[in-house]
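Field log, afternoon session.

UNIT: design team B
ACTIVITY: writing a sequence onto a fixed backbone
BACKBONE:
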């Protein structure tokens, strides 16, 4: 379970991105995070992924306050979460296989296991035939799917996605959402930030709406 208790985030610039947010996401739940530009969606995902920390309040995963993780546990925690950004940062001089394999190589997995996992992940996003290609040879939707494969190759129990369909046409956006539904069916807890209101309404899942903090 993911839980935010009275979470506020004020950036060093003085900008208040989140104010007193309370939220519970059950294990295995899939939900959408919506709200206008600047409402704090990306900030909220970053706090859960421990890429940043709240200025007030707590983020709990399975009732454990993640701010209590020791420095040497933080990398492990981050690896246990699949994070998908709109800008997927693929390495241009590496093949699709290598890009997806990267998190497993970093964790020191053996090559035969890496191959098995990468093929399974590429298969789920329907990109097996592209494994030896380079990112520049792929369409925007395919690159986005590589980003998803890389995020799920570690079999994370939590998947966070920040505007994963931002640059895609409606057909591709629906395909990507179907892929998330499949991961959810396999048991992953999923939180997706998106301002594509019609698309997320069609999905029939919980919608969490963030209001922008008024400047005061
Ligand atoms: N690193 C940062 N330093 C200072 N202010 C920031 C930083 N990141 C975000 N902000 C500010 O915090 C507020 C929330 O930003 P955030 O990116 O979380 O919103 P968002 O809902 O994801 O927006 P969008 O839909 O445009 O991506 C905004 O006012 C933004 O300018």
């Amino acid at each position: 379970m993911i839980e935010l208790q009275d979470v506020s985030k004020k950036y060093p610039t003085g900008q208040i991105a989140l104010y007193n947010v309370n939220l519970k996401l059950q294990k295995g739940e899939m939900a959408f995070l919506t709200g206008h530009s600047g409402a704090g969606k990306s900030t909220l995902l970053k706090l859960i992924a421990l890429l940043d920390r709240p200025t007030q309040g707590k983020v709990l995963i399975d009732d454990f306050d993640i701010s209590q993780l020791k420095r040497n546990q933080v990398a492990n925690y981050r690896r246990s979460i699949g994070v998908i950004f709109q800008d997927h940062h693929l390495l241009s001089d590496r093949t699709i296989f290598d890009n997806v394999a990267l998190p497993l190589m970093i964790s020191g997995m053996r090559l035969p296991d890496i191959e098995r996992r990468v093929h399974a992940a590429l298969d789920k996003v329907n990109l097996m035939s592209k494994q030896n290609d380079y990112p520049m040879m792929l369409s925007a939707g395919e690159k986005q799917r590589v980003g998803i494969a890389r995020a799920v190759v570690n079999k994370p129990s939590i998947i966070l996605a920040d505007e994963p369909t931002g640059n895609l046409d409606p057909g591709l956006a629906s395909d990507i959402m179907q892929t998330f539904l499949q991961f959810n069916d396999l048991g992953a807890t999923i939180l997706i930030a998106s301002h594509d209101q019609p698309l997320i309404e069609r999905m029939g899942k919980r919608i969490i709406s963030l209001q922008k903090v008024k400047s005061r």
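LOG NOTE: Residues 11, 13, 15, 17, 35, 37-43, 195 surround adenosine-5'-triphosphate (CB under 6 Å).
NEXT ACTIVITY: expression trials, pending approval
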